[in-house]
Specification:
The chain contains 4 helices and 10 strands, in the order αββββαβββαββαβ. With about 180 residues, it is of the alpha+beta class. It folds into 2 domains: about 80 residues, wza like fold, CATH 3.30.1950; about 80 residues, Outer membrane lipoprotein wza fold like (Roll), CATH 3.10.560. The strands form 3 sheets. A 5-stranded mixed beta sheet has the order 7-6-10-8-9, with helices on one face. It has a 3-stranded antiparallel beta sheet with strand order 2-1-5. The chain has a two-stranded antiparallel sheet with strand order 3-4. Strand 1 and strand 2 form a beta hairpin. The protein is elongated and about 60 Å long.
Length: about 180
């Protein structure tokens, strides 16, 4: 019994670490995410699928699937509908095997600049922490978040010292995939 409990704990920890949190109904699939797709009783239709930079992926019999802005449930439904032409009552399971597309970038005067995977969300202070904090030369009053929106690019100010003091906490926004935190 003890071994069973330990094994269950390990499985839960691995599922958590590999992105099972992305099974949240609100999580939208991003380019770079690795999907696990299977069709019940169809061994040839059990494959991983990498979401390409254009936001789509390919799957046998289905062809191209546009995953942009879609949740796992949306993809399950879309693939089931397309496979229904070839298989009666297909039971499709789409899950996220690895989250790799939900990234933010931190550059400039931080100890470890780079890209960081958000699972599920990260705010500005957390991103700075993931980057190892700021260097002594950082201009903490001039940190900027660069964001791409459908209407164009946006620059959002962030004053580190205000947030640390508990003021203007609204600046400590949840970052979106693709955001760049610039620490001059």
């Amino acid at each position: 019994m003890k071994k069973f409990v330990v094994a269950c704990c390990i499985i839960v920890a691995l599922a958590w670490a590999t992105g099972a949190m992305a099974q949240d109904a609100n999580y939208t699939v991003k380019p770079g995410d690795l999907l696990s797709i299977s069709v019940w009783k169809e061994p040839d239709l059990q494959k991983p699928a990498l979401v390409r930079p254009d936001g789509s992926f390919s799957f046998p019999l289905v062809g191209e699937v546009d995953a942009r802005g879609k949740t796992v449930a949306d993809l399950n439904k879309a693939m089931s509908q397309k496979l229904a032409k070839y298989i009666s009552d297909p039971v499709v399971t789409v899950s996220i095997q690895e989250i790799k597309g939900n990234k933010v970038y931190v550059i400039g005067q931080v100890n470890k600049p780079g890209e960081f995977i958000m699972n599920p969300t990260v705010d500005v202070m957390q991103a700075l922490s993931m980057a190892g904090g700021t260097t002594p030369f950082a201009s903490l009053a001039d940190i900027t978040i660069l964001r791409r929106t459908p209407t164009g690019k946006q620059s959002l100010p962030f004053r580190y010292n205000d947030v640390v003091r508990g003021k203007r906490l609204d600046q400590n926004i949840d970052l979106q995939s693709g955001d760049v935190v610039v620490v001059p």
